[in-house]
Amino acid sequence: MATILTEAEAKALLTKVLSYSKADECEVNILGEERGNLRYARNEVSTSGSLTNQNLQVQSAFGKKVGVATIDEFDDASLEKVVRRAEELARLAPENPEHVGVLSPQQYLKSNGYVDATANITPDIRAEAVAKSLQLARDQKLTAAGFLQDNHGYRAMMNSKGLFAYYPSSNVNFSLTVRTDDGKGSGYVARGYNDFTKLDTVAATRIAIQKAQGSAEARAIEPGKYTVILEPTAAVVLLENIYFNLDARSADEGRSYFSKTGGKSRLGDKIVDERVTIYTDPTNAELPSSPWSGDGRPQEKTMWIEKGVVKNLTYSRYWAQKTGKKAVPNPTNVIMLGGNASLEEMIRTTQRGILVTKLWYIREVDPQTILLTGLTRDGTFYIEDGKIKYPVKNFRFNESPIIMLNNLESLGKPERVVSTETDQNYLVPPMKIREFTFTSLSDAV
Amino acid sequence: MKPFIFTRIQYTSGDWDTDQRMPSNILHSLVEYTTIPVDQKEKVVQLSSPDLFRSPFCYMSGHKLVEFSAQERDHFKRYVQNGGFVFVDDCNHDIDALFARSFEQEMARTFGPKALQKIPNNHPLYTCFFKFDEGPPTTSFELNGWGDDLVHDYLKAIMINGRIGVLYSNKDYGCEWDYDFRNKRFLAEDNTKFGVNIITYALTA
């Protein structure tokens, strides 16, 4: 049997699995995927990897007693075995008071995140893409370390009420660090696409090279509050912490930034600058994502923050039922609207500031204010009178993405970026921010 | 009651024009927490100008050299001895940067070598409005990576007749409070509260 099933094949298999079920309710999830990667360091390829995986998960319920079992063998005996096992576990399980039954059939939007060019990548193609990058680094006597990884596959689900969902997708992520020979300069780039033909490893490598060469001989300047220009790669690792906090239950229970005193949430409050709009849209052509969430709920175009105001929070089906709200699922993609400023223009209009190309090692200091800490890295530059003057030593920062989005000066055009913390892809603009707090210096390059 | 004016001292050596958003942030806190009437605009006075003597509270900071001219030194001394209050804050974060060293020398020259003394962390300054049981609140700029990594766990002062005339901090509260006051609502704990204490002490002690 193929690893990656077509919609019809998946439907047939899941129908068969459900035919074995004797539980009150049954839900079956399946996934199949192929992954490949090429890793290089010190200008040489060090690892070439591939992975083929398929997995089937059965969830059986008797009333509010639920059991889950998984298997990766798909012959009839194995399929029946996994269903029986899930049922045995359900009978043994204590009641889950928060269990809600399976969904009836749903309507889903059309979204296309599966691209043949990505699915057809072979080790040779990976090697060729990496060779071009390596060549550029070697030619300039720089040291490159990078990772090219791609995957394609599908997920499907079916339940005993007749719901069926299927979504195939593909993705390629490329990341690269380039260092100068003496180790004093470092540059980074990351790119992610559904479509491999959009990945230009040469253009990406040139960016990392330029940052590596430009960041050697960094000078120390005093920590403090500076106007910063955050490239999307730097901005996204802070912004995604807002997205992680969108859960209504933790807001209602007083556990998150979106909580307010008296058991209220910030739904409907203006929390950031009016130019900030953040939403989910699975049909976005640049960032397509699954039109259904893991439990089968449809993904719709959903505003999280519109013109600075909190418009929606996510609700589990249990919490939605309990509070009488719509069960808005967690986002499968996140998009932030931008503005018209180019990066050059942002630099030109900065009297005194810092260009931040990457932030890393992000950790939470205070969940109630989403206060985060982390460091700049791989190229940080001082701007004076509208020009990049010199590279500066890296900083530790203490900043909340909420405060940051209140101190907005300008926004550029959104770009597809890869979070260096989670590997998630987002659409995020570069941004110019006032009063960004750098608290100390770092010796890291 | 005349409105409180946040007065900043301009001196000829070094730089004095720091932390530009800080005064309005502190004034906002005064309005929020106290009934002290305030003038919304920061006033800048030259240390050599007699205008200095009209302000009961002055702020002075910088990164660089502090070396008063003869007239500046005379004004500073007379202002403090006549009941004025100066809050001096080193805008560098490290413990013995140029401002700190030269300011302490300047105070020794002006008021005598032992005039500037540590004040205990149970000084009324820490309880005159909000309570700070452990002395001066720490700032995010401490443990600063410049190599000293020292937390300044006390403040220094020059006492005149049992009252602080010069309050000296090398904790860099100026930078800590240098943000748009509208962002205060996003902090778990408003970090400008100690600023309210300093001004309350200056006006009432």
Structure, described:
- Chain A: It holds the Pfam family PmbA_TldD_2nd.
- Chain A: Residues 223-439 form the Metalloprotease TldD/E C-terminal domain.
- Chain A: This is TldD/PmbA family protein.
- Chain A: GO terms for molecular function: metallopeptidase activity.
- Chain A: Residues 27-90 form the Metalloprotease TldD/E N-terminal domain.
- The complex is a heterodimer of chains A (445) and B (205).
- With 445 residues, chain A is of the alpha+beta class.
- Chain A has 2 domains: 7-211, 2-Layer Sandwich (PmbA/TldD fold), CATH 3.30.2290.10; 218-444, no CATH class.
- Chain A is 23% helix and 38% strand.
- Chain A is built from 10 helices and 23 strands.
- Chain A has helices at 7-19, 76-92, 116-119, 123-139, 201-215, 232-243, 248-252, 317-323, 343-348, 401-406; strands at residues 25-41, 44-62, 65-71, 142-159, 164-180, 186-193, 224-230, 259-260, 264-265, 278-280, 302-306, 309-310, 335-336, 352-356, 359-366, 371-376, 380-384, 387-391, 394-399, 408-411, 415-418, 425-428, 431-442.
- In chain A, strands 7, 14, 15, 16, 17, 18, 19, 20 and 23 form a 9-stranded mixed sheet that branches.
- In chain A, strand 11 (302-306) and strand 12 (309-310) form a beta hairpin.
- In chain A, helix 4 (123-139) packs parallel to helix 5.
- With 205 residues, chain B is of the alpha/beta class.
- Chain B has one domain (7-204): Domain of unknown function DUF4159 (Rossmann fold).
- Chain B has helices at 22-33, 70-81, 98-111, 173-176, 193-204; strands at 7-10, 43-46, 57-62, 85-90, 116-119, 155-160, 163-169.
- A 7-stranded mixed sheet of chain B has the order 2-1-3-4-7-6-5.
- The radius of gyration of chain B is 16 Å and the shape is globular.
- Classes of the chains: A alpha+beta (445), B alpha/beta (205).
- The interface between A and B is medium-sized, with 23 and 19 residues.
Number of domains of chain A: 2
* Order of SSEs of chain B: EHEEHEHEEEHH
Based on the structure, what is the oligomeric state of the protein chains?
heterodimer
The profile of the biggest β sheet of chain A is: 9 strands, mixed
Low-confidence parts of chain B: none
CATH architecture of chain B: 3-Layer(aba) Sandwich
What is the total tally of β strands of chain B? 7
Mean pLDDT of chain B: 93
Provide the CATH topology of chain B. Rossmann fold
Cα radius of gyration of chain A in angstroms: 24 Å
The tally of beta strands of chain A, per DSSP, is: 23
Question: What do we call the CATH homologous superfamily of chain B?
Answer: Domain of unknown function DUF4159
Spatial arrangement of strands, main beta sheet of chain B: 2-1-3-4-7-6-5
The biggest sheet of chain B, with number of strands, parallel, antiparallel or mixed sense and barrel status, is: 7 strands, mixed
